[in-house]
Amino acid sequence: MAEHRLITIPISHFCEKARWALERAGVPYVEEPHLQGVHVAHALRRGRSRTVPVLLTADGDVVPESSAIMRWADGQLADPERRLYPVGVAGAEAARLEAWLDGDFGADGRLWMYHETLPAVQTLEASVVHGIPAWERHLFRRGRTPLNAFVCRYLGVNAETAAAALARVDDVFATIGDRLQDGRPYLCGDRLTAADITFAALSAPVICPEQYGSPLPSLDAMPTAYAREVRRLRETPAGRFALALFARERRLVAS
Ligand SMILES: N[C@@H](CCC(=O)N[C@@H](CS)C(=O)NCC(=O)O)C(=O)O
């Protein structure tokens, strides 16, 4: 029987956003995880995209981009009240916030995390290789040094860019914290929207949530400087908000 397939890099936070949207909408799918670098061949050949996630639907449709997958998943929900893009002002605001977060924020948290962990890439091994084909696992183990170099060059990772990225993450956390100051339970008011899931999922590299949809290393096993910053960000209003969303909403099915 045909099935929905989600091409991913298992540790990727954009892929987490897509997993969360599909699971919340009660859409059964098979995840097809790949190693960083190898994913490009699959994403290009089958998804006509350089990036993952890419959703291949059972009907043969190709849906690249996490925001498009979230919209597609939302469209599977019968009850409009349960959708992540409500009709009207809140829906437009949710889409605006999602687009803003998908931009620099998504890239910045990832860049900083890679900078803090790449010299100790062994620490991330279990997360990077989770579920990927055996030959890709072999490639990872044989090719750590070239993989480090590839990721650093490809994403522009160095001490200066990492520090600037973390400063921008702090700015976004401050903006989100300000937004929540009036006591609203969600970013766009009193219901969960695409903006909340996007913020929580894309925060993962800087808060390491327990309920992440693919295994993350324990914070205690991570490099000290990385763990210290994660603990600091977890204690901010925005960090507490993202962790609470993971704890409360990540396993909920809306249908
Ligand atoms: N705008 C894309 C961004 C996805 C993205 O950056 N994915 C990363 C993994 S976290 C990727 O595939 N990077 C490889 C590349 O940029 O070629 C989305 O929302 O899906």
Describe the protein in words.
The protein is α+β, with helices and mostly antiparallel strands and 255 residues long. The chain folds into two domains: 4-82, Glutaredoxin (3-Layer(aba) Sandwich); 89-249, Glutathione S-transferase Yfyf (Class Pi), Chain A, domain 2, CATH 1.20.1050.10. Helix content is 59%, strand content 6%. The chain contains eleven helices and four strands. It has helices spanning 13-24, 38-47, 66-75, 89-117, 121-128, 134-142, 144-155, 159-180, 194-207, 224-234, 237-249; strands spanning 4-8, 29-33, 54-56, 62-64. Strands 2-1-3-4 form a four-stranded mixed β-sheet. Helix 1 packs across helix 9 (194-207) and helix 4 (89-117) runs antiparallel to helix 8 (159-180). The longest helix has 29 residues, at 89-117. It is globular, with a radius of gyration of 18 Å. The model has no long low-confidence stretch (mean pLDDT 94). The structure holds glutathione. The site of glutathione has 14 residues, from helix 2, helix 3 and helix 4. Residues 2-81 form the GST N-terminal domain. InterPro entries: Glutathione-S-Trfase_C_sf (IPR036282), Glutathione_S-Trfase_N (IPR004045), Thioredoxin-like_sf (IPR036249). It holds the Pfam family GST_N_3. This is Glutathione S-transferase.
Bound molecules: glutathione
Helix content class? 55-70%
Per CATH, what is the topology of the largest domain?
Answer: Glutathione S-transferase Yfyf (Class Pi), Chain A, domain 2
Strand content: 5-15%
How far is it from the N-terminal to the C-terminal residue, by CA? 23 Å
